[in-house]
From TrEMBL, chain A:
Residues 187-217 are annotated as: Disordered. It comes from Cryobacterium melibiosiphilum. It comes from the Bacteria. This is Gluconate 2-dehydrogenase subunit 3 family protein. Pfam families: Gluconate_2-dh3.
From TrEMBL, chain B:
Belongs to the GMC oxidoreductase family. Signal peptide: none annotated. Residues 233-338 form the Glucose-methanol-choline oxidoreductase N-terminal domain. The keyword Oxidoreductase applies. Residues 434-554 form the Glucose-methanol-choline oxidoreductase C-terminal domain. This is GMC family oxidoreductase. The keyword Flavoprotein applies. It comes from Cryobacterium melibiosiphilum. Keywords: FAD, Flavoprotein, Oxidoreductase. PANTHER family: LONG-CHAIN-ALCOHOL OXIDASE (PTHR46056:SF12). It comes from the Bacteria. Transmembrane segments: none annotated. Residues 166-187 are annotated as: Disordered.
Amino acid sequence: MAFSTAPVTSGYTLLFFTPAEASLMDALLARIIPDEPGSPGAKGAGVTEYIDHALAGNLQDLQPVYRDGLRALSAYSQARFGSLFRFLDGRLQEAVVEELDRLVTADEQAFLGQFFRIVREHTVQGYFGDPAYGGNRDAASWALIGFPGAQQRYSNEQLMPGFNASEVPIVTVNDLYRRIHEKRHGTAAAENDDQFEEGAGGDPVAVLGSTVPADRP
Amino acid sequence: MTERYDAIIVGMGSAGGVIAEQLTQAGLRVLAIEKGADHGPEDFAVTQDEMRYHQNGSQLTTIAVDPVTWRPTVTAQARLLPWSSGPFGQPISYFGQSSTGTGGGTLHGAASSYRFRESDFQMRTAIADRFGEAAIPDGSTLADWPITYTDLEPYYERVEYEQGVSGRGGNINGEPQEGGNPFDPFRARDYPMPPVPQGPGDVPFVQATTRLGLHPFRQPVAINSEEYRGRPACVNCGFCHGYPCHVGAKSGTHITSIPAAQATGNLVLLSLSRVLRINRSANGRQVRGVTFIDSAGAEREATARSVILSAHALQNVRLLLVSGINATGQVGKNFMTHNFGRFTSVLPVATNPFIGSANASSAVDDFTSEMVPDNDLGVLWGSPIMSVAGDLQPIEAYHLMDRRVKKFGLDLKHWMRDNYRFMHRMYSQTTNFPHPQNFCDLDPLVKDRWGQPALRVTHDWTDHDANSVALLGRYKQHIAREMGATDYWMDAPRPPYHLSTHDVGVHRMGENPATSVTDAYGEVHGCAGLYAVGGGQFVSYGGYNPNETIQALAYLTADHLIEEYSASLAQQGISDSD
């Protein structure tokens, strides 16, 4: 038999969640930071991918919390509204999240509340953190709030009041490493880039030169 | 096999780096033992990653490696601190203790570099004179320092010139200086560099405080405002508090003192190595050396005439206690820490809070220390109010959000969209009085992976602590309104944290061994040659950041050690010629 190569989620490989869990995560995250036309929220920005990959890596201690938490969320929706969370309409999903949010502070012992606190924290991390972590696709959240990202320097003039930071092209950590690599290999684009012109030790190419692997993207 | 040195330094951070440089340049052979990595400049070429540095704290220790427990009172069960075990039940890093590796706390700090005031060294006398002896809280061990500001003034200057501090002195030998802080204590020389450029959010703060009749001044920071000693000026990237500096503009000892010490050829630096215990002579009166585990996991022993603990106040205490050194029962007493009273505003003008370092901004000293106004809350000691201009990344901004705003749905998303670029922060640093109810000792249950007991902190905020935050909060509120803030909110006066890099006092210095741990040079009473240096020596605590005083004390200790070393050489010289 042939395996299907069609992605079961929106284009990334699941490392921890089952497809059903990933769908439920998408639905939950969409209520924490909603998508809007032209402005991705947590689901659209790929935060489920961030959390999935983190759970397979540095957050692996939390695997049981997520597995149990998603099951508890399903049970709660089922008991309260007679349906799984992801099949509830928007108004009812909102009511569930409202209750989870209330539990966070109202009852420190409530597992669902603690689960929601953790999910929300990770949602914020995935949404506003660097795209290298798997969320914040296309740096959508940074464009939304006007954060120019991983800038390595601003001039003293840009530090003054009245500077419109939204004119600065957004930079990610990956861009920084790419520039280091390009400058190391003398491409024209990097030659014209004044990002790293400043000072001794301020040029990561000089600093990193010999340590950046040649095959780095 | 035992290795022999003139001195052993435990911890290559803020104080340890300074002492290593001084001793090796004077010709002493020094072994430095550092539990973290030996950082080279290539380690920090790309630091602009809030997740890696600020959320995951990649250069910090973790609760799994350096557990600390906390309880509010002696009758409560101590537990691993909520954030130190990670709010998610994870052994993630935490900001309760300093960065590890060469540079220590100077790696990740926002580099505020304040001198303490004259009165901060005589806090007990100043309070008794103004409010009466009866005003001092019952049972408090508040005392004056064994040294004065005048004693330390030349050492402050050395920190500013040798490490590199930017600022504008307000009082040079009694002469008020235009643009400086009018409440400054005297200084012999101005800072070696002018203040760093000011972030946009600080402009309304300066305008508002000036209109209110207060006296804003630009904060002194250990960050280059211009090229200094071969290191470049700050390039305003805005990844500063919690981040190592990618251009080396922040005056961390990993790029100032430690390379200088290495250049002498007299320093043996063992990184990723951990001291297990301090060894003494049979009668306990003379230090002998240390037993440690090196980076390969081998247990080794080294001996020296002097052993200097500079591993942060709390870890100094843990090392003393696990080594059984506590003859007068004072080790770990007098725990003091800062309550930051964070205050967040939304301003009508864009503040671009992500540009420039956190302290590229101003402060007012009108309510600091002995200048605390008469008040109905019984607050006896004040604090500066600092404006925070830059260094605010999105995840941290979310954590500062107004508690009244719904933290999900479009409320959350739109709040960040509409307010992030307009945020401004203020904070103060009020402290608890030294009191027997606040102390640290060894946890009877929790052990680290080497089988040694964790440190246990017993501390809770008192009414005076909470009232101090409330009082400073009133002034912050006046300032926020004068800035035209469209919204503002502040931290609870009894915050959930009890542990920060600002923890001090726990190996207090003093002349009387019955009420202190070390003398003014940091030498531990009753154990010749053993020194405990750093914020642990502080006798009382005002509202300024501790680091410049920690480094001034380190220079003082280094001078003392070098004098002793020279005297012993001279003595040997005499006996040789006999």
